[in-house]
Design brief:
5-stranded antiparallel beta sheet; Jelly Rolls; alpha+beta
């Protein structure tokens, strides 16, 4: 389960709050915390990472992506979310690992809301996290199976920053790197979410167009009814006039015959 923790809180204070979604590991040998660099090739950032922080200002292609920077002397992967001038793709982080726990820290400047999704063959958990909390703890994982973590930037109305800082894995064998941190590859069938900024004009046009078409259809229908009735009445009136005229002439002939 996911749990955002205050910067000065200790993890064991919150253990009793965890739901037993994942199997709790039995007490075994001593576990070890392994530090994983956020620039590790086993971690995938989408749409991409701009290595040069200054590129964000000079290269419009870096707009909406991640960039490698340093916050308080610590390597940090940062994003400000999707940008209309960029690729318009919601920034995400993907990671596959084997561990009984994962701890992910953010910087003091991180303000974004992010969606954390953890899944394995034993279950799935999703939680919206305020990254300004400073630390996200994912514990009670089954180390015998692969667990995937997806962090998704949640666009908001206000500008915000999502910083990925230190990553720690709690493992039973710190020497088996390929076991607890296998190579991460995105499935070819996975479609990345796109973010489209809603605008008033777009909504108005999409709404007004059907209304305009419907209004025009109503006008056309009314005109067809009026024209149809008008033509019909004209035909009837002409027939009545011809009948009346023929009848009148017949009466005139009969009158002339009588006298």
């Amino acid at each position: 389960m996911l749990l955002p923790l205050p910067r000065h809180a200790h993890i064991h204070v919150y253990v009793w709050l965890l739901a037993l979604l994942f199997r709790v590991l039995p007490a075994a040998g001593a576990a070890t915390n392994i530090s994983i660099a956020n620039s590790s090739p086993q971690i995938v950032f989408t749409p991409f990472v701009c290595e040069d922080a200054s590129a964000l200002a000079s290269d419009p292609e870096c707009s909406g992506a991640w960039n490698a920077t340093n916050i308080a002397g610590r390597p940090t992967i940062r994003t400000r979310g999707p940008a209309l001038g960029g690729s318009n793709i919601v920034p995400q982080m993907f990671m596959v690992f084997r561990a009984s726990a994962l701890y992910l820290s953010t910087s003091v400047e991180s303000t974004a809301i992010a969606n954390f999704t953890v899944s394995s063959k034993t279950g799935t958990a999703t939680q919206i996290v305020d990254t300004s909390a400073g630390l996200v703890a994912i514990i009670n994982l089954d180390e015998s199976v692969l667990t995937s973590l997806v962090v998704t930037f949640v666009p908001g109305t206000n500008a915000s920053v999502l910083d990925i800082g230190s990553i720690l894995l709690t493992v039973s064998d710190s020497t088996a790197t390929s076991s607890f941190l296998p190579t991460m590859t995105l499935p070819p069938s996975m479609s990345l979410p796109t973010f489209v900024l809603p605008t008033t004009s777009a909504g108005a046009s999409s709404t007004s167009t059907p209304r305009t078409l419907a209004h025009r259809e109503q006008i056309a229908l009314a005109l067809s009814i009026v024209l149809g009735v008008g033509v019909g009445l004209s035909v009837i009136a002409a027939a009545i006039f011809l009948w009346w005229r023929k009848r009148r002439r017949r009466k005139q002939r009969e009158t002339q015959t009588w006298f």
